[in-house]
From TrEMBL, chains A, B:
This is AcrR family transcriptional regulator. Pfam families: TetR_C_13_2, TetR_N. Keywords: DNA-binding, Transcription, Transcription regulation. Residues 24-43 bind DNA. Gene3D superfamilies: Tetracycline Repressor, domain 2. One of its GO terms (molecular function) is DNA binding. It comes from Kutzneria kofuensis.
Length: 179, 179
DNA sequence: GTCTATAAATTGATAGAC
DNA sequence: GTCTATCAATTTATAGAC
């Protein structure tokens, strides 16, 4: 992996672990085993690195969700497959955590790619819900269950609330479909 | 308001706006119009202030939810009242945002009061769901919808996803009750 | 491309006078 | 109780040699 790539991967990890405000250029360099000069050669600064990390996050997460949501099966089955994907819940959602960071929210440059990712997911879920004639607002409900599940799990320091939240939502959805 | 109280209120605001990592003692003092010496007289340091702020958050939020969830009306109606309470969505949940902060998650002292608050809410919701014979796991689903709604709203810089998530959840719940 | 030096500002306290 | 001084460490770079 190139120095540049190591810097981006290091930033992705640190953003997830410590947020944007809590991540220092120095920490990024150390984890990437790169020097100060090297980092500033490849990137203009902290924000530039964060942008690259967020864009790579978006690519990865879009690819995963896209595949799950397009698999064969009934609409609700595909949604359940996506919701039940194994996640490192206690580490937080790579995108969701960022949205709580004051400096990311204050910067359209950094917030936009995150907003676009959620917007894409929402659109894809709406299409699938519409196949079954379900209320398309449920796209936001399902996304919220996932993001909120992470929050509850971290508060409790346990993955249990995440699992319960997801299973509860799937059960409600199945009942709504059985008409 | 006493200097001590102003310091706590100042900390509550800053924790919500900027998180724990992003909040400096200096900023707390300036917003509270208190000097350095004054702050360190009343509190042992940043963590001590955060603890006081979190505890006051918990008191306020518990009082609000307690009242809404105990109002007259059917179980699902009471839950809907609580979910539909007007919130300053784009400012984030005073408790939920904190849970994404690396130093709060790393400190049991700071995380515990937050965990207890969610635990209390979960228990209260379970009691209410049980009244209608509903799956008690839905307590976590509903809490997650709320917390996730905040996340989606902040990502989109719009309150719309929050409203859709909540209304979608209420609609599902009403349908599940109509048996 | 990578390295070292330098730096102004901020962070989170402590010390001691009033 | 409140104030000012001081401080070691960190933050986020920039400059310029190699």
């Amino acid at each position: 992996m190139s120095t540049r790539d190591r810097l981006v991967e290091s930033t992705r990890e640190l953003l997830r672990e410590r947020g944007y405000v809590g991540t220092s250029p120095k920490a990024i360099q150390q984890r990437a085993d790169a020097g100060q000069g090297s980092m500033y050669h490849h990137f203009a600064g902290k924000q530039d690195l964060a942008l690259a990390a967020i864009e790579r996050n978006a690519e990865d997460l879009t690819a995963l969700a896209s595949e799950e949501l397009s698999s064969p099966g009934a609409p609700v089955e595909r949604i359940a497959t996506w919701l039940r994907r194994e996640r490192e819940v206690l580490r937080g959602c790579p995108m969701g955590v960022l949205v709580q960071d004051p400096e990311i929210i204050a910067s359209d440059t950094l917030r936009s790619p995150i907003a676009e990712h959620f917007e894409w997911l929402r659109g894809r879920l709406r299409e699938i819900l519409a196949e079954d004639g379900l209320d398309v607002r449920l796209a936001d409900t399902l996304l919220a269950v996932l993001q909120g599940g992470y929050v509850l799990a971290r508060a409790a320091n346990s993955t249990e609330p995440f699992g319960d939240a997801v299973e509860g939502a799937i059960a409600l959805l199945e009942r709504a479909t059985a008409d």
